Amino acid sequence: MSDLNPINWWRRLLALPNDNLTKTLVVAFLVAFIASIFVSIAAVTLRPYHLANLEAERQGRLAAMVAALPGMGDILTGAGVDDMEAHIIDLTSGEFATHIDPATFDQREAASDPTQSSPIPSEADVAGIKQRSDFAQVIILRKDGKLHLVVLPVRGIGYQSMLYAYLAIHADGNTIAGLTFYEQGETPGIGTRILEPEWLELWPGKQLVDKNGEVLISVVRGEAVGEFEVDGISGATRTSNGVSNMLHFWLGDYGFGPFLTRLRNGEV
């Protein structure tokens, strides 16, 4: 009758030479099996701490990302915000896309990916970008727990380059808090005057749309005369027009228009 005592089996196994194939395989299996048990127990026990650390790391990446945005310091100076969040929105609906991580989303890359972007009808493409990503990032800044500013990434063709900028808007969804350009290649000394602090200081307080929701903000030739106008840049008419067209597109139906409508209606 076979000896079914596991202790005797184990003794016979240990008695085998160390170079015995059976002994090697059995010992390797047992070590792996016991190790997997400890790993599983550790994974289950430590999972809440792991998830908490992942969330803290994600928030840290978001904070670092926002702080590193070119020109963001200029927008935040004096705003007194105490909290910031990066969100991805569906440009068609204006609603948050919670399935996309803002920390890893690359809007410029998405705009060039046919599976993540949509062509813009020629009659609507006043910014001259031809294609836009289906999703876009917005940064929400809070003060005392209340929504204070939203920052939108915008881009459009200037005179001889693509203009990339951030537009900061107050919680009413209509009043400009600031505009800053972080990438451009306009004519030095002429078109590059869009970077001058004196010109950028003309933007805060300007209004985007009228009571009917029509986008009216524009850079005009000469001096501005109303709440929807900003002084033009002498000698840089095409760059000025490019800024106007860029904003008209991104504030309209194919840009952040649906999101800003929700913001004005208190839905954000």
From the structure above, extract its key features:
268 residues, 2 domains, two-stranded antiparallel sheet, 7 helices, 9 strands, 35% helix, 22% strand, elongated
Structure in words:
The mean pLDDT is 86. This protein has a five-stranded antiparallel β-sheet. The protein has 268 residues and is α+β, with helices and mostly antiparallel strands. It has helices at 6-15, 21-68, 72-76, 107-111, 197-200, 237-250, 257-264, and strands at residues 83-90, 117-119, 131-133, 135-143, 146-157, 162-170, 176-183, 218-220, 229-231. The protein is built from seven helices and nine strands; from the N terminus they run αααβαββββββαββαα. It has two domains: 6-63, no CATH class; 72-264, no CATH class.
